[in-house]
Structures are given as structure tokens and as C-alpha cells.
Amino acid sequence: MQLTLHVNGADHAIDVDDRTSLLDALRDTLGLKGTHAGCEHGVCGTCTVLLNGEPVRSCLMLAAQAEGEVVTTIEGVTPAPGELSVVQDSFVETHGMQCGYCTPGMVLTAHALLRANPAPSRAEIVEAISGNLCRCTGYGQIVEAIELAAQRLARSNTP
Amino acid sequence: MAQALAWMAADPDARLLAGGQTLMPMLAMRLVRPSKLIDIARIPGLDRLEIAADRVELGATLRQVAVERSAALAEAVPLLAKAIRFVGHPPTRRRGTVGGSLANADPAAELALVAVTLGAELLLHDGSAVAAVDFFLAPMTTALPEGAMLTGLRIARQSAPRRGTGFREVAMRAGDYALASAACEVTLDAAGRCASLRLGIGGATPVPTLLPLAALLGTSLTEAKPAIAAALAPLEMMSDGNAGAAYRRRAAQALAEQVLADALAEAMRCN
Q1: What gap in Å lies between CA B25 and CA B167, rounded to an integer?
Q2: Does the beta-carbon distance from B21 to A56 stay under 8 Å?
Q3: How far is CA B267 from CA B60, B76, B78, B85, B221, in A?
Q4: Min CA distance, A18 vs chain B (Å)?
Q5: Which of A21, A130, A132 is the mutation pick for testing B, counting most B CBs within 10 A?
Q6: What is the pLDDT along chain A (159 residues), one digit of tens a residue?
Q7: ipTM of this model?
Q8: How many domains does chain B contain in total?
Q9: Do A60 and B92 count as a contact with CB atoms less than 8 A apart?
């Protein structure tokens, strides 16, 4: 099946099997390995990507269903090669990651949350990441990371 | 839609794909191997949301997130707004659809419970409608005929001024499948007595079930416990590795009492 996927700002013409998941198309066809394959049946959330700016599970979508939509993966949130986004920086600083497996899903979810809600409450952060499992029990620092990113983004355009 | 129906008619092993939040995991685990997948998400108008004076209609492919974000819908059908936040997690609500959840008929599905509780109707492609109470036959089994497509959900609006609703569930963690759930809509007359009462149980029973509580009409609803217990007594409760039937019966009783109290308190605040 011939498809054009719009990923991280560029169009990619690909040829995949009809039932290729978006996850597999991103990882195996486009080589974007930052999107992690975890449970592959919609439970863990590590395969989260942004579809038109909102988090979805890429293992629960066919690549064909993403045609015509704007897809953002973890590779697409950095401001420039070699740099980290404010959210990624905050995860580093608060130790919001240990093994790193859940991290791309958590970071993308945080990006989407902070775009829609620049000053989320702790409860809103917890609700936003409720579909993303972390097995290093790092939720405390992950919530802290998102709180820190919110504070920094709030000040980023003020003198 | 005509094309999708023709494909279904030509191939009994074809399956409709809406939001994919249940069917895609089933495909991943090889629990189903349909010959064809017919993606209905882009059928024009099938994702409609119509809010009229006397009813609302939700198209089958309306995303659950659209239900969650519609203030007008929350005002028209408050019980739906309370229940939708228990449906999966934000990313699954972004893709999951109203019709997909209803047609899937998981016993724990919140939307199915709301449909049964509010006496909603499920709309089919041929213009016919099936009452929600007749639609859900058994876990994952509906009255949808072979080759038919569910196209929407119609809910009559409750116009009584003194109205209250409640929705609660227990699950292993927030967003997981409900072990038991309860939904309630109550209206009061001018004297504060119960004018109408609809209370449904989900998760615990094989299909969402409306409790027969006519004995409580005209009362102040403060002594509902025995009537709820009597209504639950003949119902079959499910049992699985997460919770046994006795636990589910206790949870259903407690949740039913709580949602009734929630709905009553809300109705009493209306003047």
C-alpha cells in the first residue's frame, strides 16, 4: 500500500503492508526508533505519538489511518539537532527518567498537555499521563519534570 | 457508507474499524483475523453531534474526546459528561469512538451503561432504532444484525428543572475496566419527592442493567438501600480473576447508593 505520511514536518512516501501499524511504519520504514514498541496492544503508552498535536497510541492505529494527519514523534520535538526541548531538559534535571523506556511517550504527552494547558495542576498532570506506564516507579519525578517545564515555559517569553 | 455496507455484504468475515482501541489490540494478539478491515472513520457525517431541544444524537464515529469537550452536550446530557471521563485514558479517548464502544459491548463500557440508564436508542444504517436495553445481549454480543452498521446514539433530553445525575465506578486503577459501575438520573417534584428515577449497573453484570426501582417513586429517596438490594438480588454477577461475584454485588450495592445520593444532592440544589 502506497502512503504519504506527514511526520515531523516532512512528507514521506512509503510502501507498507495494508495492516502495518503506525508504530511499525515509524520505526521500521522511517527509522524513527525513538517511538518505543512496548506492549503493542494499547496498554503501556510508550508508543505515544502526537496526531494533530494530541497524544495517541501508534500501536493502535494503522499507518493508513494516519494519512492526511500531522504526526509528531519524539524526534520532532527538539528545537535543533543536538538540542533538547524545555520539557526534555526538565526530565533530565528532575531525574524524570530511569531506564528511559516510557520517556518518549511521557515527553510527548507533556508537550501536548502544556500546549493545551500551560499551567496544569498536579491532578491534571496525573490525568494526562494516566495512560503511560512507568515501571521504574518514577512517576514522582515525572510529575515534577512537567511542573518544572510549565514554570520555565511560563517565564520563557517574559523579560 | 453504501460502499462500506456493500463490502460487508460481500464478505461475512470483514470487520468494521472505527477508533480501533479494542479491535487493534485484538488484531495484535491474533484473537481475530478478519479478511477485510473497513475503516469507517472517514465516512462523511458519521461523526455528527446534534443537540436539539428534545434530544441529542451522537454519530457512531464521533470521537470520545469530542463528547468530553462539548460544553453544550454536558449541559444537555450531564450524565454523559460525568461518565466519559472514566472511558479509558486521554489518548484512547482521542481515537476511541462512541459507536465503537457501543458495538463492542464490553460489560464494563461506560457509554453502554449511560445508554441503558437513560433509555437511549441505538440507530442503524437503515433508519431503524433499537432500544439500548434490547441492544446489549451478553458480553461482547449485541442485537446488531449481520451486515448492519451502527450509525449513532439518540438520547432524549430530560426537561425537568430539578434534576440530578451521578456516575461512579471501581477499577483496579483509574481508566482500567470497571469491576462495577453505577449511573443514575433522578428528577424531583416541587415538594422534593422523586418524580422519576433511572439507575443502571455496569461492569458487575454481563450487560448494563437498569434496576427496577419504581417503588421509590414519590418517596424522598432517603431510604433506598433495601430497594436497591432487592433489585440487585436476582441479577447474575460476573466473576473473574480481578473480582468475584460477591465482591461485585457489594460494590454494585455501594455504588448504586452513592450515585443515587450524588444525584439527589444535585437535584436538591436546583431551584
Answers
A1: 27
A2: no
A3: 31, 15, 12, 21, 12
A4: 9
A5: A130
A6: 999 999 999 999 999 999 999 999 999 999 999 999 999 999 999 999 999 999 999 999 999 999 999 999 999 999 998 999 999 999 999 999 999 999 999 999 999 999 999 999 999 999 999 999 999 878 999 999 999 999 999 988 766
A7: 0.92
A8: 2
A9: yes
